[in-house]
Specification:
Pfam families: zf-BED. The protein has 337 residues and is of the alpha+beta class. It is built from 12 helices and 14 strands. The strands form 5 sheets. A 3-stranded antiparallel beta sheet has the order 1-2-3, with no helix packed on it. The termini are far apart.
Length: 337
C-alpha cells in the first residue's frame, strides 16, 4: 500500500504512479495526459501558453491555473456550483453548456439533455461511441448519480458512507442526499479536484475527499475534520496495544492540540505559555500563525510538554519573551567561560 501527500503542485506524481503501476486502469489518451488540475476540464490548450475556455471561447494565458480558476469563478459560476449531476469520472467526458440544461461530449461534440432520470444516456453514449475512453470497470457501472461518489452499496436497502462509514438505509437517492447535507454539509456535486492549497480545506465541504490508510491493518478512512474521532476510535478498538492508557482516553484530535494544554477552563500554549480564553479551533490556529508562524500540522512527533523544543527548524518565535531570556542566559554562560 502506497500513500501520497496531495499537493496541487505535484499532481503529476499521482499520474505517474498510475501509468507505471496500474496502466490497465487508464486509456491510452489518459496515459499521455500532461494537465492534471480540475480546471483543465473547462479549457483547451492551444500552443504552449494559451488556453481557450470551452464555455465562452475566450482565450487566457495558461502560465498557471490560478488565472483559469479566476475566470471560471467570475465568468462561469455554474462551473463550480452547477455541475452536471453525474459521477466525477463521467463528468470529465462532458462540458455543461452555459445557461442551459444541456451537455456536450468532449470527444465528439454530440449534445445531450441533462435529465436526472436519464443520466444513464451519458454513460451509454461513452460505452457505445467511445469505449476506449473508459476502463472495463467503468463500462459495467450502473450507478450514475453524483451521490454515489460518496457511497458504497452494501445491499439493496443499505449504503455505506465513504466519509463517516455510517450505514444509511435508502429507498431512493433523496435519503442519501439528506445524509450528505445534514451530516457532511455537502449540497451537490463537487469539482473534480484535489485540495486547492489557496483555499481552506476545513471550511470547504465540497472539495474532493482524502483517503488515508492505517499503518497497522491497511484499513482505509476518509479524512474529514469533523470526524477525526473515527481515526482514534479505530485505534482504540482495533489496535489498543498501540496506544497508552492516556491516549485511549484522549478527546482532542485536531493537530492544534499538539501545541496547547487544556486545564479546566484554561488553555495554555506550550510554546509561549500564554493563556487563551477561547476554545475555538480558529482562535488556536490564529495564535499559532501570528505568534509562532506555524501554519499546519508538523510532520514530526507531537510536542513534548515536559521540555522546550525551541530549536525546531519549523518554529519561528523571534521576539518571544522566553527566547530573549534563553539568549541572555547563553550570553551570560559565554562570559563566564
Amino acid at each position: 500500500m502506497i500513500n501520497f501527500f496531495i499537493d496541487i503542485r505535484h499532481f503529476h506524481i499521482l499520474h505517474k504512479h498510475w501509468v507505471e503501476k496500474h496502466p490497465d486502469k487508464l486509456t491510452e489518451e489518459e496515459k499521455k495526459e500532461v494537465k492534471f488540475c480540475w480546471s483543465w476540464y473547462y479549457f483547451t490548450l492551444k500552443g504552449d501558453s494559451i488556453a481557450t475556455c470551452n464555455l465562452c471561447n475566450k482565450s487566457h494565458r495558461s502560465k498557471n491555473t490560478s488565472n483559469l480558476r479566476s475566470h471560471l469563478k467570475i465568468m462561469h459560476k455554474e462551473a463550480a456550483h452547477n455541475l452536471i449531476p453525474v459521477r466525477r469520472w463521467i463528468r470529465g467526458h462532458y462540458t455543461k453548456l452555459t445557461e442551459s440544461d444541456k451537455a456536450t461530449c468532449n470527444h465528439c461534440n454530440d449534445h445531450f439533455d441533462i435529465l436526472i432520470r436519464h443520466l444513464f444516456i451519458l454513460h451509454k453514449h461513452l460505452v457505445e461511441a467511445h469505449p476506449d475512453k473508459l476502463t472495463e470497470e467503468e463500462k459495467k457501472e450502473v450507478k450514475f448519480f453524483w451521490i454515489w461518489d460518496y457511497f458504497n452499496i452494501k445491499n439493496d436497502a443499505n449504503a455505506i458512507c465513504k466519509i463517516c462509514e455510517t450505514t444509511v438505509r435508502y429507498t431512493r437517492a433523496e435519503n442519501l442526499k439528506r445524509h450528505l447535507k445534514n451530516i457532511h454539509k455537502i449540497l451537490g456535486p463537487s469539482p473534480d479536484s484535489a485540495i486547492n492549497n489557496e483555499s481552506n480545506l476545513y471550511n470547504d465541504a465540497n472539495w474532493d475527499i482524502q483517503v488515508i490508510t492505517c499503518n497497522h491493518c491497511n484499513d482505509k478512512y476518509i479524512i474529514e475534520v469533523r470526524h477525526l474521532h473515527i481515526l482514534h476510535q479505530h485505534l482504540v478498538e482495533a489496535h489498543p496495544d498501540k496506544l497508552t492508557d492516556e491516549e485511549k482516553k484522549e478527546d482532542k484530535f485536531f493537530w492544534c492540540w499538539d501545541y496547547f494544554t487544556l486545564k479546566g477552563d484554561s488553555i495554555t500554549c506550550n510554546l509561549c505559555y500564554k493563556s487563551l480564553k477561547s476554545r475555538y479551533i480558529s482562535n488556536l490556529k490564529k495564535h499559532l500563525k501570528i505568534r509562532h508562524k506555524i501554519f499546519g500540522p508538523s510532520p514530526d512527533s507531537t510536542i513534548n510538554n515536559e521540555s522546550n523544543s525551541y530549536n525546531h527548524a519549523n518554529w519561528d518565535i523571534s521576539g518571544n519573551r522566553l527566547q530573549r531570556k534563553l539568549i541572555k542566559d547563553v550570553r551570560k554562560i559565554n562570559r563566564l567561560m
